[in-house]
Inverse folding.
């Protein structure tokens, strides 16, 4: 049975064809994930961290804020056969495993929201700058240069000193610096794309700038943005831990991995578990993020497919 040209060009047929292509891409991605053991390991790590963060009230054996000085600095269960605390206690007698589990929430919230904000704003700036060019491009790129020239730690100190430390302020401080990376990458992609034939064809039939940007250019620049977001998730977690370690993160008593490291550094030589387990949690989570980022780069970047 043959189809007429009108039937092939009908919206219903085009939608069905697009669905078939999407399913094919999804199957290829899953097949690639099954073959790439390191990427699968990274996905399992991130899924495990997300599950721990969501089910923190169920998984935590004790309250993360309950203090009892008579049981302070108890070693982990396997080091002390009489202890009921799996990973021991901190200097205030709080269950360390419970604080470590609840600290997962802060790291993921900061990481995901900071990546979303920086990616969205940087994507918009890159699209506008690369497409319109001229004075708009000059102004936005000079703004990017200005942000890059300002020391991040000084920016964080000034902002937090004026506004005060909180989870929202921490996310905004981190977002104020990283968005420029997305803006530069997207701008470069748009500059190489705006003169291509399909963009010229869209202009010739009367397509508006907004439609061309969001209908034709945006889908073609999402791949590098997704790759950057997956790679920068781990970096955001490290930055959050570093700021919390310096006392610039979420204020106590909310547990964070960086805050746990800061509290434990005083007892480094006598209570090793206070810095070992938060450090391992950060390392494993960032490792999972990087492995997933490498896998996404391999399947989304056409230049990697040709290697």
């Amino acid at each position: 049975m043959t189809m007429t040209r009108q039937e092939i060009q009908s919206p219903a047929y085009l939608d069905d064809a697009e669905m078939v292509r999407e399913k094919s891409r999804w199957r290829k991605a899953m097949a690639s994930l099954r073959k790439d053991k390191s990427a699968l390991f990274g996905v399992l790590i991130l899924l495990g961290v997300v599950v721990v963060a969501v089910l923190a009230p169920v998984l935590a054996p004790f309250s993360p804020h309950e203090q009892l000085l008579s049981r302070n600095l108890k070693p982990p269960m396997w080091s002390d056969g009489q202890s009921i605390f799996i990973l021991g206690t901190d200097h205030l007698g709080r269950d360390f495993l419970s604080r470590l589990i609840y600290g997962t929430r802060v790291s993921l919230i900061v990481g995901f929201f900071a990546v979303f904000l920086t990616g969205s704003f940087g994507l918009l700036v890159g699209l506008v700058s690369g497409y319109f060019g001229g004075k708009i491009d000059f102004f936005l790129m000079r703004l990017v240069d200005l942000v890059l020239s300002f020391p991040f730690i000084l920016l964080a100190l000034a902002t937090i000193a004026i506004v005060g430390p909180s989870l929202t302020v921490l996310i905004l401080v981190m977002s104020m610096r990283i968005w420029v990376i997305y803006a530069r990458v997207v701008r470069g992609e748009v500059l190489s794309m705006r003169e291509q034939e399909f963009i010229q064809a869209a202009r010739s039939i009367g397509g508006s700038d907004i439609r061309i940007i969001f209908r034709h250019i945006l889908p073609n620049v999402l791949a590098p943005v997704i790759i950057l977001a997956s790679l920068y998730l781990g970096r955001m977690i490290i930055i959050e831990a570093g700021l919390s370690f310096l006392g610039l993160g979420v204020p106590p008593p909310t547990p964070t991995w960086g805050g746990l490291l800061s509290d434990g550094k005083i007892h480094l030589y006598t209570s090793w578990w206070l810095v070992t387990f938060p450090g391992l949690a950060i390392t494993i989570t960032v490792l999972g993020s990087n492995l997933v980022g490498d896998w996404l780069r391999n399947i989304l970047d056409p230049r990697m497919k040709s290697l």
